[in-house]
TrEMBL record:
<dbReference type="InterPro" id="IPR029058">
    <property type="entry name" value="AB_hydrolase_fold"/>
</dbReference>
<dbReference type="Pfam" id="PF00561">
    <property type="entry name" value="Abhydrolase_1"/>
</dbReference>
<dbReference type="GO" id="GO:0016787">
    <property type="term" value="F:hydrolase activity"/>
</dbReference>
<comment type="similarity">
    <text>Belongs to the peptidase S33 family.</text>
</comment>
<keyword id="KW-0732">Signal</keyword>
<dbReference type="InterPro" id="IPR051601">
    <property type="entry name" value="Serine_prot/Carboxylest_S33"/>
</dbReference>
<feature type="domain" description="AB hydrolase-1">
    <location>
        <begin position="140"/>
        <end position="525"/>
    </location>
</feature>
<dbReference type="InterPro" id="IPR000073">
    <property type="entry name" value="AB_hydrolase_1"/>
</dbReference>
<feature type="signal peptide">
    <location>
        <begin position="1"/>
        <end position="33"/>
    </location>
</feature>
<protein>
    <submittedName>
        <fullName>Carboxylesterase B</fullName>
    </submittedName>
</protein>
<keyword id="KW-0378">Hydrolase</keyword>
Length: 556
């Protein structure tokens, strides 16, 4: 992912995808009545106490140059890795595709757990580090979000800002590509880059009956591509339940007895689930940009949609004060003015001047979403909409959408979206009822008004996860563990992707201290806000908690 952003939130993409902006929303139904609740069978995790796992916990990372890892990455991440080679080292950590302590849950859910012939039973997780500058006390594992976000370059990304200097003095910064992602093996790739380009040009945002038939066919083709690539068993073990187990093996492989970790966006969900799976292995966890583990995918997506609308309106107020704002000087009319600009793209995409491709309606909406993650890209959104309005081409907006999808200028995509969809299926119960699905999408469009396609939505394709080869392994629930001084939550009042209230709720549920950042943008820790960085750094290094709740304000 780009250095200045974290990945998209894990659930918003589901509803965006359902509207033809990417793949479709993935969902699965559950009606299991067993003597033991299958959703409690895999927690806590067995960890290093399980005899079959001892060989994995005994390994140590063999650090070396990052060339091999870079060459296994997407073009975008490879380019970043080349830039970072002077700073970071890389290695791999071997983990079982199927952990022995989840097989009982797999059987109860009817999920595949035997690795197919010709498929690997051992995955290799790509890891990177920037070594501590002083006496090493441990390593700090980093996840940028997603799911599906590559974290390989995060060690170097966080090492650069002065904000992390205090941490880097005593802690290695350790990035990793979760199973299925980037330089890790196997690497999930469900469709070709050309097919992804074609998917993005799908123009029927309101879905005619003919379009629904077509989209259902494409969903089946997509799922079959996923299975062909890595096998049904790997797809059933790509979710958060399995990634947190990988994180614990990584913890041991870098030589740490307990985990020090910072997770952004979806990475907060990894952190809260790790805390439940390995409650005795926590040293210091910072969770910034909280995904609420108590919400189902519908409520989470609707709330995230409302967050993006709020941020769009904040951008509109800023734009209205600028010279030549393309949506005019009345922020209250910004959404309707945006619709006037982009709705025509559904029938006639805008040409580009230098990119030799066209800008679709869905890409114009994705460009807005991408630009709202940080105020640094607000001027780019203004420029892109100016170009579109004046007929100067859709290049800037298309470039913003490309960045969101991880597409490099050579046409190569990071596999973020494929892993995102797969994890979505394994982490979320879904709704197979057509009427409820329709209601959900309408609620979403009402919450995120600028993304409204402008027509009556009467049909929706079947949920992709309803044909997925496995049922979800996690359900919404209140975390069963408390911080006990080991967890710090950071939440931003103007976060477009993960609403501020989610951080407040998680801090309350886990009895964890909260740092409130009053400002705009997705996530705040170690991003140059001195007040936030001071509290985060002091917590990571010294385990010091100043108050149960502190407030930091945006600084220029």
């Amino acid at each position: 992912m780009r250095r200045d952003t974290v990945s998209m939130p894990r659930k918003l993409g589901a509803l965006v995808m359902a509207m033809g902006l990417a793949a479709s929303l993935g969902v699965t139904t559950t009606a299991t009545a067993a003597a033991q609740d299958p959703y409690t069978m895999a927690t806590p995790a067995a960890g290093e106490n399980h005899p079959a796992l001892q060989k994995f916990y005994a390994q140590r990372v063999q650090w070396g140059p990052c060339l091999d890892a870079a060459m296994r990455s997407s073009t975008l991440d490879r380019y970043q890795a080349f830039l970072n080679m002077g700073e970071m080292e890389c290695g791999t950590v071997e983990v079982p595709v199927v952990y022995p302590d989840v097989i009982a849950q797999d059987k109860a859910l009817g999920n595949p757990w035997k690795v197919e012939p010709g498929k690997t039973a051992v995955a290799k997780i790509a890891v990177s580090r920037v070594k501590a500058t002083g006496k090493r006390w441990g390593g700090m594992l980093i996840n940028p979000g997603g799911p599906g976000g590559s974290g390989l370059n995060m060690s170097a990304s966080l090492a650069s800002p002065a904000a992390a200097a205090k941490i880097l003095e005593h802690f290695d910064l350790v990035g990793f590509d979760p199973r299925g992602v980037g330089a890790s093996e196997p690497n999930l790739k469900c469709i070709s880059d050309k097919a992804f380009d074609n998917k993005r040009t799908f123009g029927d945002a309101t879905y005619t009956r003919k379009a629904v038939v077509y989209q259902n066919q494409q969903n089946r083709h997509y799922m079959n591509g996923c299975i062909k690539d890595v096998g049904a068993t790997f797809l059933a073990h790509i979710g958060t339940r399995d990634v947190v187990r990988d994180m614990d093996v990584i913890r041991a492989a870098i030589g740490d007895k307990k985990l020090t970790y910072i997770g952004y966006s979806y990475g907060t969900f990894l952190g809260s689930q790790y805390a439940e799976a390995f409650p005795t292995k926590l040293r210091a966890l910072v969770l910034d940009g909280v995904v609420d583990p108590t919400e189902d995918s519908v409520e989470s997506a609707v709330n995230q949609g409302a967050g993006f609308q709020k941020s769009f309106e904040a951008w509109a107020k800023w734009c209205a004060k600028e010279r030549d704002c393309p949506l005019g000087n009345d922020p209250s009319k910004a959404t309707s003015e945006f619709h006037k600009l982009v709705w025509p793209l559904q029938k006639k995409p805008a040409p580009t001047i230098v990119m030799s491709r066209s800008l679709s309606w869905s890409d114009s909406v994705q460009a807005v979403i991408a630009s709202l993650y940080t105020q640094a890209t607000w001027p780019l959104l203004k420029l892109g909409l100016q170009q579109l309005k004046t007929g100067a081409g859709g290049d800037v907006l298309l470039a913003l959408a490309d960045g969101y999808y991880g597409r490099w200028i050579d046409g190569n995509y990071a596999n973020t979206q494929d892993v995102f969809q797969a994890v979505l299926c394994m982490d979320n119960e879904s709704n197979s009822d057509h009427a409820k699905q329709l209601d959900m999408i309408r609620r979403y469009m009402k919450a995120m008004k600028f993304a409204d396609p402008g027509g009556a939505i009467e049909n929706v394709p079947a949920d992709l996860c309803s044909i997925w080869p496995a049922r979800h392994t996690i359900r919404p629930h209140k975390p069963s563990v408390h911080s006990n001084g080991n967890i710090l939550v950071v939440s931003t009042t103007g976060d477009p992707a993960t609403p501020y209230e989610a951080g407040v709720q998680l801090a309350r549920d886990m009895k964890a201290p909260l740092v409130t950042y009053v400002g705009e943008g997705h996530c705040a820790a170690l991003r140059g806000q001195a007040c936030v960085d001071r509290y985060v750094g002091d917590f990571i290094v010294n385990k010091r908690i100043h108050k149960s709740h502190v407030t930091c304000r945006s600084q220029p």
